[in-house]
């Protein structure tokens, strides 16, 4: 199935985890890919080889998306690589675990600048491009179940993803006249390096799995499949939504 023939996608934070899976999935369905991370490394090199071997083009553009000018430059540089961008996947994200009373301003900024501010201005740069060339666009934001459910000791993370929920709801209306769709994907517990501590800690993992009706962690590929749906024409009437990929975590209820 080539849902992304002649389409070009920029995926932020795509050298590992969910972002890498999104890049590979979109390429497997025909997209050319702009990979991104803070700096080029062997993971980026490996992904470029993998995507090229699939018959698609892939280029890495380095940028720290937590700074506004960097993310604006990233979008504009990415457009220059293959002459266009059709799909923006805002995947890069960070989390910091701290008791609320101990959170420093730097820690707050680290989370909010990456997970919300960078995304805000990245979308703005992308939509300015779409509007000036009168072309449609698709945005998929990597949110989290924590745009909806609480996570004690991760207040800044929850605030950033909660903000992303409202950003998407708001922009769906504001950008519809420009033919730009925008949706969130909200992963639950996915097996990626961001969850290293959880995966290594059997006791904690057991507690987490108790809250997941499907009793297993998700895979990056599970998330990428939903991103691909939302980025594709199959979702042409879908905007302003959040799709949960969480094994039932968010709305589970059990009497025990
Ligand atoms: N893994 C999960 O269980 C889970 C659950 C919910 C939401 N998410 C979200 O999914 C997204 C991806 O998470 P993941 O699990 O793959 O994490 P990860 O840590 O494995 O990957 C995140 C990637 O983003 C990159 N990145 C971080 N900050 C960046 C910056 N400022 N500029 C450029 N690149 C940057 C990292 O280098 C890394 O490659 C994040 O937004 C995260 O909040 C993950």
Automatic annotation (TrEMBL):
InterPro entries: NAD(P)-bd_dom_sf, Sc_DH/Rdtase_CS, SDR_fam. Pfam families: adh_short_C2. The keyword Oxidoreductase applies. Keywords: Oxidoreductase. GO terms for molecular function: oxidoreductase activity. The keyword Zinc does not apply. SUPFAM superfamilies: NAD(P)-binding Rossmann-fold domains (SSF51735). Belongs to the short-chain dehydrogenases/reductases (SDR) family. PANTHER family: OXIDOREDUCTASE, SHORT-CHAIN DEHYDROGENASE/REDUCTASE FAMILY (AFU_ORTHOLOGUE AFUA_5G02870), SHORT-CHAIN DEHYDROGENASE_REDUCTASE FAMILY PROTEIN. NCBIfam families: PRK07231.1 (NF005559). This is Short-chain dehydrogenase/reductase SDR. It comes from Mucilaginibacter paludis DSM 18603.
């Amino acid at each position: 199935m080539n849902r992304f023939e002649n389409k070009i996608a920029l995926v932020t934070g795509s050298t590992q985890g969910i972002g890498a899976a999104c890049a590979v999935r979109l390429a497997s369905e025909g997209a050319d890919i702009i990979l991104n991370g803070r700096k080029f490394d062997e993971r980026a090199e490996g992904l470029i080889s993998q995507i090229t071997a699939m018959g698609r083009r892939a280029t890495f553009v380095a940028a720290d998306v937590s700074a506004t000018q960097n993310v604006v430059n990233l979008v504009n540089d990415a457009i220059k690589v293959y002459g266009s961008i059709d799909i923006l996947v805002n995947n890069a994200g960070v989390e910091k675990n701290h008791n609320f009373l101990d959170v420093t301003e730097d820690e707050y900024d680290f989370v909010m600048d990456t997970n919300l501010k960078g995304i805000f201005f990245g979308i703005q740069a992308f939509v300015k491009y779409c509007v000036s060339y009168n072309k449609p666009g698709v945005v998929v934001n990597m949110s989290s179940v924590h745009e909806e459910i609480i996570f004690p000791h991760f207040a800044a993370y929850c605030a950033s993803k909660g903000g992303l929920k409202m950003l998407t709801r708001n922009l769906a209306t504001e950008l519809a006249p420009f033919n730009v769709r925008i949706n969130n994907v909200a992963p639950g517990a996915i097996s990626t390096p961001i969850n290293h501590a959880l995966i290594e800690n059997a006791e904690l993992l057991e507690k987490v799995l108790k809250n997941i009706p499907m009793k297993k962690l998700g895979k990056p590929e599970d998330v990428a499949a939903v991103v691909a749906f939302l980025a594709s024409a199959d979702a042409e009437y879908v905007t302003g939504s959040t799709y949960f990929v969480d094994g039932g975590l968010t709305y589970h209820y059990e009497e025990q």
